[in-house]
Amino acid sequence: MRLLMLGSGTSTGVPRIGKDWGECDPAEPKNRRTRVSIIVESDEGTRLLVDTSTDLRAQLLANEIDRIDAVFWTHDHADHCHGIDDLRVLRYGRSAAIPGFASTACAYRLRQRFGYVFAGQHGYPTIVELQTLDRARMHGGVAFRSVEMPHGPTQTTGFRFECDGKALVYATDFSEITNEMLRVFDGADVLVSDCLRRQPHPTHAHLDMAIELGERIDAHTVVLSHLDKSMDYATLDAETPDHVIVGYDGLELAA
Fold this sequence. Notes:
It holds the Pfam family Lactamase_B_2. This protein is an alpha/beta fold.
């Protein structure tokens, strides 16, 4: 499998509006972060999009992505789903709607807010055929499992994708490591982990928690994501272990 990191930043991106780079060096291109979203692609060409970030159109253009085979949502917070309308163009030329997957609670909220995407409207076709995760385990030759993770007072969905004997885990926006997460994520080749900042945060993982999760599941490689303006790329890269990669927009990695 191949990981393509479309976006690596927190909900406000880096820099924040007003040219606020925080501790990030503006001269380092890897510090320019759009909102988080990834592509998981199998050797056979199945291409799965995880989250429709606020910056989705720009991300798809920058990475020359003009086709996906399915879309997954971790949760319905704005930075993870408000680029949903950009799926319309990916629907063009298809004989059927794009398959979509989300938890039961997330699917309900997405339908409430973006009804036209899932049911069509005014003669326009349905863009996404949404299924709940309790009814699906595989798509396009890629097996997947999910687990609900604490995200402060709410929950988000973590995913494990498996294909050709490799496993990639995507765990963003979590604030606690649970036994169920450890069970589902165990032995992953690649873990993409939430890592907002160095200091603990009430709704997100911090640096030590992200590294701890990688150690507890015995992940071969850990990729840090959802990074805020305090996480300068070069500084963070110099202080993390060799198996930990500081994520950046456009990062490509084979599992």
